Amino acid sequence: MPQQTLAAGVNAPARQAVELAGLRRRLASMLYEILLLLGVLALAFMVPLLILGAALNYTPPGGLLWLYVFLVLGGYFMWYWRTGGQTLAMQTWKLRIVDTKGEQISIRQGCIRYALAWPSVLLFGIGILWALLDKERQFLHDRLAGTRIVLLLNNAKN
């Protein structure tokens, strides 16, 4: 990563140029993310429960399974959002999640965004459709959490 020299002679990483990501790119990233999440759920959800069922002849109740899915996916998103600001799908589509100042999101913002994304998507996509009315085309859960999805630009452009 390019370095900038500060007045005191200390090197700091140069900030990468960014702009707000377009709606189509974010939706395409969401679709790709769904495919990747199937693998995450297969590994973290189905395999342990199959072993549990086969070894102990036990199946957890449905509510507990949904809570487990919510926590596993929350762990996945929080891990990636807090260690680089990009999930695997976001890396492919050159997207990054940042706060309104362009910095890494806080744990609080990540938790709010994740919790609000569920009803945003599951209630007939109302939080996604919100982007059609929002002046910056941001999803409702991003607007409420104080986060933005930005497009990473190549620094090679002159």
| Quaternary | single chain
| Cα-atom radius of gyration | 19 Å
Structural category is alpha+beta
The termini sit apart by 18 Å
Helix and strand sequence: EEEHHHEHHHE
Q: How many β strands by DSSP?
A: 5
What percentage of residues falls in helices of 4 or more residues?
40-55%
Strand content: 5-15%
Largest sheet: 3 strands, antiparallel
Helix count, DSSP H or I runs of 4 or more residues:
6
| Poorly predicted ranges | 1-13
* Global morphology: elongated
The total tally of domains equals: 1
Which sequence of strands runs across the widest sheet?
3-5-4
- Whole-number average pLDDT? 87
Task: Give a written overview of the molecule.
It is a single chain. The chain has 158 residues and is of the alpha+beta class. The protein has one domain. The protein has six helices and five strands; from the N terminus they run βββαααβαααβ. The chain has helices at residues 23-56, 62-82, 88-92, 107-122, 126-129, 140-145, and strands at residues 3-5, 11-13, 18-20, 95-99, 147-152. The strands form two sheets. Strands 3-5-4 form a three-stranded antiparallel β-sheet. A two-stranded antiparallel sheet has the order 1-2. The longest helix is centred in the N-terminal third of the chain and has 34 residues, at 23-56. The chain starts with a strand and ends in a 6-residue tail after the last strand. Residues 1-13 have low confidence and may be disordered.
